[in-house]
Amino acid sequence: IECRGAGRPSEGVVADTRGERARIYPSPELRQGVAEKFPAAVEWQQIGLPAEFFPLLADGEDAFIKPGETTVAHGGIAIEEVLVPLVKIERRTR
Length: 94
Hints:
Blueprint: E1 2-5, E2 17-18, E3 22-25, H1 28-35, E4 42-43, E5 54-57, E6 62-63, E7 70-72
Parallel strand pairs: 1-6
Antiparallel strand pairs: 1-7, 2-3, 3-5, 4-5
């Protein structure tokens, strides 16, 4: 989906993974510190994830890039990330 910049966290090496739509932190405290600066971001629940895997996701069509920039990305929690279109093509016989 096309995403708009909500700001890039300046966290140094705190995040294990630094994507445009998701950041992964090794502890809930580190994630919360960044989440406080990005109130629209979602602190994703850790259910089913590894013990030291605390995701922070960009909300809606936001991305962790410079404000005013746009990008096409995937990996967020927008409805477009969940729905998969299905097209059925059939040949007609005459």
